[in-house]
Specification:
- By secondary structure, the chain is an alpha+beta fold.
- The chain folds into three domains: 15-73 and 96-223, no CATH class; 240-322, no CATH class; 326-442, no CATH class.
- It has six helices and 19 strands.
- Strands 1, 2, 3, 4, 5, 6 and 7 form a seven-stranded mixed beta sheet that branches. Strands 8-12-13-9 form a four-stranded antiparallel beta sheet, with no helix packed on it.
- A hairpin with a 2-residue loop joins β12 (308-313) and β13.
- It is elongated, with a radius of gyration of 31 Å.
Length: 445
């Protein structure tokens, strides 16, 4: 019987659990050979684990201890307040880990030249993948085993749920290449389990299912960043936009470049992204880089504000909006009725405020963002006024308005206004409009 220790390192100490076939450097017996389809796909980057031949352990929940390192321990948060991108020098903030690169080496992974045996299993790499390892008892792997889904489901119950909602254990190719045999596939976050712990859990799953005699492989793929996305010495290392695309300027779907001079306004209610010291430690998902890992399966696509960013605020990775100045369009417009010139209320004319079905507020905000984009870097050209003349179709529609544009910013504005679609006139008759459009910079509310 194999006794599995449930402390920080889970080991199988019985001699029956050790490999007995080590006559050659790769762990194969003298009469065994590596099939061509596996030999070409496996070098040293995927891990296949096979049953160890141990008797079934008592059926009880497993608790695999995770070695507590600077990479796995989440730094404490700061109570001190700092500037938009960095905490105050006096703020007491726990230092985030400098790197998780050590988690791509033993005991968590393999050295580039290693072909080790761990817990009785050979560890082999896939040639085209850097972070995938296959654990196998021997290289004559059984193919098309109907028991693979059962093993995957059982192992999924044994592996700690980190994070909740992570990709489940499943069945798929041992290596992501055509012709690769099928394995049980396990995704892990960096630094959470050693290869010895993985081998022990997989051996237990096979034993509890009485499948020790089948040469089933386990592919293990490691996820997560090993360090910040940029360094403090990089002048361009600022926050990242959370815009989720696809980009379409005509519809206002784009992210404005971050303005380092604009104040930051926190967009999330609670700081949950993790401790940081500068923007480069905050990454996609608005979490600290050392909290990245196995992707989480969601049932819907999450969308973010076009002008929402993620950076380090008060020692925490947090979402924020930028309180930047924006370009505002003012309009003085007239039409002629029965030979008389009459002033028009520009807001309903341009955005359809009288009709809620016209989605007036989003239309106004979209135009404002488009105009702000036109004048990025050209703010000194404002204010600016243009004489305009256009017609509105009876059913509403595109004005095809073009301005007498001279500068790049003005040509951009002309393109925006040319595509401006106006609601139908109140009279539902063709309306001719003249007047003036004025553009100005407005301070944030």
């Amino acid at each position: 019987m194999c006794a599995f220790g449930l402390s920080l390192m889970v080991l199988c100490s019985s001699p029956r659990c050790r490999s007995t076939n080590r006559q050659s450097n790769d762990g194969l017996g003298p009469n065994q050979s590596l099939p061509s389809e596996l030999a070409q796909g496996l070098l040293m980057s995927s891990v296949v684990v096979v049953a160890l031949g141990c008797k079934a352990a008592p059926r009880q929940p497993v608790e695999v201890g995770v070695p507590l390192t600077s990479a796995t321990a989440a730094p404490g948060t700061s109570a001190g307040l700092g500037s938009a991108s960095k905490p105050l020098a006096s703020a007491a903030i726990s230092t985030p880990p400098a790197s998780r690169a050590h988690c791509l080496r033993p005991p968590y992974f393999l050295e580039p030249a290693d072909t080790p045996v761990v817990g009785g299993f050979q560890l082999l790499r896939c040639t085209t993948e850097d972070r995938a390892v296959v654990l196998v008892r021997n290289t004559r792997q059984d193919k098309n085993l109907p028991s693979l889904p059962r093993v995957a489901d059982h192992l999924d119950k044994l592996v700690p749920r980190d994070p909740p909602g992570r990709i489940p254990v499943r069945v798929g190719p041992c290596c992501d290449k055509p012709g690769s045999p099928e394995c049980v596939r396990l995704d892990l976050t960096l630094c959470t389990m050693t290869m010895e712990q993985v081998a022990t859990l997989f051996a237990r799953a096979l034993s509890e299912l009485s499948l020790e005699s089948q040469n089933i492989g386990l592919r293990v793929h490691l996820h997560g960043m090993t360090g910040p996305r940029c360094s403090t010495t990089d002048a361009s290392c600022g926050p990242i936009a959370r815009f989720s695309g696809p980009e379409d300027v005509r519809l206002g779907n784009f992210a404005l470049p971050y303005d380092p001079t604009a104040p930051r306004r926190v967009a999330d209610s609670e700081p949950t992204g993790g401790a940081c010291q500068y923007d480069g430690e905050c990454v996609e998902g608005c979490v600290a880089w050392y909290r990245t890992g196995v992707p989480v399966v969601t049932s819907h696509e999450q969308r973010f504000s076009n002008d929402e960013y993620c950076g380090c605020i008060e020692g925490q990775c947090r979402a924020f909006t930028s309180a930047r100045r924006s370009v505002v369009l003012d309009a003085t417009l007239y039409t002629t009725k029965q030979g008389q010139r009459q002033a028009l209320d520009a807001l309903p004319l341009l955005y359809g405020f009288a009709d809620p079905n016209q989605a007036a507020k989003p239309r106004q905000e979209r135009l404002q963002r488009q105009l702000t984009r036109c004048y990025l870097g050209h703010e000194t050209e404002l204010p600016r006024a243009f004489d305009v003349a256009f017609t509105i179709p009876a059913q509403g529609g595109n004005t095809r308005l073009e301005l007498d544009a001279k500068s790049p910013a003005e040509r951009c504005v002309s393109e925006v206004l040319k595509g401006l679609t106006l609601p139908a006139p109140p009279s539902h008759k063709l309306m001719s409009v003249t007047g003036q459009f004025s553009l100005r910079l407005a301070e944030p509310p």
